[in-house]
Amino acid sequence: MKKRLLYTYLNPSSFVLKDIEILEEEFELSLHRFDVRSKYKLPIAFLKQLIFLLKNSRKQEVVIVQFAGYQSALPVLWSRLFRKKSILVLGGTDCVYLPSIHYGNFSKGLLAKCTSYSLKKATLLLPVSQTLVETDYDYQLDDFKKQGYKAFVKGDTASYKVIHNGFKIDQWQPAEKEKNSFVTVAADLQTRFGIKLKGIDLILEIAPSLPDCQFYIVGGKNTTLETPSNVHLIETMPNNELPHFIATKEYYLQLSMSEGFPNALCEAMLCGCIPIVSAVGAMPEIVTDKGFILFKKNSDTLLKLIHVAKGLENHEEMAIASRNRIINNYSFEKRKTTLIGVVHQLFLD
């Protein structure tokens, strides 16, 4: 008989669905969505989660929560009360605080308390990048110089193991490229911090100086941005259409102020796009010398970097190297093997 797990998540995003797929092969899952798209529904979300946990208190030995925050506080408390094990998968916003744009779990009172409690009292933390634990931050000058949850949680936190995101290679294939084309995929741009967080402000600054280039912002259609003629705001695309669209672009831009281990970047690299990224989160580690890194948030520096990228003589070689970087280091199978092994070990401990 399969061992039983509780799995709680916020949204059915691609990385959540992939982890569910992985875990369902080895374990019997009871799934719960902590639906808090409106802050006014938070008490209802807590009540529904409490009922779910109580119904399952005798059936499962381990609870896994996707990200620390409101959604992890009750499962961690439940696990301690009933002597169960709890795992938190950490992804980004639950480990940072950028006061300049009021971004991150530690920027809000109750959310910060729920996050801190969860990080201290869980059995095991599974960050997708070492930078989410603790890292220096100097991409821009207006925020804390240390990021990662250890910079913001007082006292000891739970033990951790880094497990990188993994990608299904066959779903992301290169295609014929549109010359001098750049693409970025961004969610939640309509939020108060979305434009700056995802570096869209930099794209809007440099685009007029690059009239021979075309910039595509997937997920930008619902914003009220005024854009230059060579910046195209695209609707959020379904998963079956996105791979081909990205694959037809030469370069992938990820100019975020904060990232954990971005899926879209790795997927674009699998499509043979040459990456141009900001020096935050795991992105420098992912890209290494297979692309270009913007070390400081500065539009003039970015413009120079793009000119260098456009002038590449070994463009095809770098595109192939970019794809191989993900294939060799961040496969779906690698995450699957490691994640299942960690959960099995937790049952034995």
Describe the protein in words.
The protein is built from twelve helices and 14 strands. The chain has helices spanning 14-24, 42-55, 70-81, 109-121, 194-197, 200-206, 242-247, 263-270, 283-287, 299-310, 315-329, 332-348; strands at 3-9, 27-33, 62-66, 85-90, 124-127, 135-136, 146-147, 159-160, 178-185, 214-218, 231-234, 249-254, 274-278, 292-294. It is globular and about 65 Å long. The mean pLDDT is 93. It has a six-stranded parallel β-sheet, with helices on both faces. A six-stranded parallel β-sheet has the order 11-10-9-12-13-14, sandwiched between helices. β12 (249-254), α8 (263-270) and β13 (274-278) form a beta-alpha-beta unit. The protein has two domains: 3-166 and 332-348, Rossmann fold; 169-329, 3-Layer(aba) Sandwich (Rossmann fold), CATH 3.40.50.2000. The two termini are 19 Å apart. α6 crosses α10 (299-310) and α8 (263-270) packs across α11. The chain is α/β, with parallel strands linked by helices and 349 residues long.
Task: Give short descriptive properties of this protein.
single chain, 349 residues, alpha/beta, Rossmann fold, 2 domains, six-stranded parallel beta sheet, 14 strands
Poorly predicted ranges (pLDDT <50, ≥5 residues)? none
Counting helices, strands and paired strands, the structural category is: alpha/beta
The helix tally amounts to 12
Tertiary shape: globular
End-to-end Cα distance, whole Å, is 19 Å
Q: Mean pLDDT, nearest integer?
A: 93
Q: Which sheet architecture does the biggest sheet show?
A: 6 strands, parallel
Using only C-alpha atoms, the radius of gyration works out to 20 Å
- The assembly state of the depicted protein chains is single chain
CATH class category name of the largest domain:
Alpha Beta
Element-by-element helix/strand order: EHEHEHEHEEEEEHHEEHEHEHEHHH
Task: Write out the CATH superfamily name of the largest domain.
Answer: Glycogen Phosphorylase B
CATH architecture of the largest domain: 3-Layer(aba) Sandwich
Percent of residues in helices comes to: 25-40%
CATH fold-level label of the largest domain: Rossmann fold
- The number of domains is 2
Beta fraction: 15-25%
The count of DSSP E runs of length 2 or more, i.e. the number of strands, is 14
Major β-sheet strand ordering = 2-1-3-4-5-8
